[in-house]
């Protein structure tokens, strides 16, 4: 029996998500085709000009916008940001620092603190159970 290795492909939306870019801003040939794993790796290793431009100036998808603002995706929605933003728009939001953004950043900071606290608590609990077994 001979095994045939099939090329793993993905939809453009999946590839755009993995590349961290907004699909609608990509070239038409990218949006209309399928992307193989090899093509995705090549795009990541040696990004073409259009990909470099999208990554640096946008428009950026919501996960990237949220990360650049230091808030959650849900925080973006609560702040009324539903559209992709460019880097300039993100920088403007940071500069203006509206009340909703300050609140969401504080919320995100609390979430991070709580995550660290729980991680430390679980590590201590695991250490205690290891000591009990010895």
Could you name the key traits of this structure?
134 residues, mainly alpha, two-stranded antiparallel sheet, 8 helices, 67% helix, flat
Topology:
Blueprint lengths: L8 E2 L1 H8 L8 H5 L2 E2 H9 L3 H9 L4 H8 L3 H6 L8 H10 L2 H35 L1
Antiparallel strand pairs: 1-2
Describe the structure.
By secondary structure, the protein is mainly alpha-helical. The chain has helices spanning 12-19, 28-32, 37-45, 49-57, 62-69, 73-78, 87-96, 99-133; strands spanning 9-10, 35-36. A two-stranded antiparallel sheet has the order 1-2. The chain is flat.
Looking across the biggest beta sheet, what order are the strands in?
Answer: 1-2
Helix content: 55-70%
Strand content: under 5%
Order of helices and strands: EHHEHHHHHH
- Average predicted confidence as pLDDT: 88
Rg, rounded, reads: 21 Å
The shape, in one word, is: flat
The residue ranges in which pLDDT falls below 50 over 5 or more consecutive positions are none
Biggest β-sheet description? 2 strands, antiparallel
- Distance N terminus to C terminus? 51 Å
List the total number of helices: 8
How many DSSP-defined strands? 2
- Summing up helix and strand content along with how strands pair, one would put the structural category as mainly alpha
Short description:
The chain has 134 residues and is mainly α. It contains eight helices and two strands, in the order βααβαααααα.
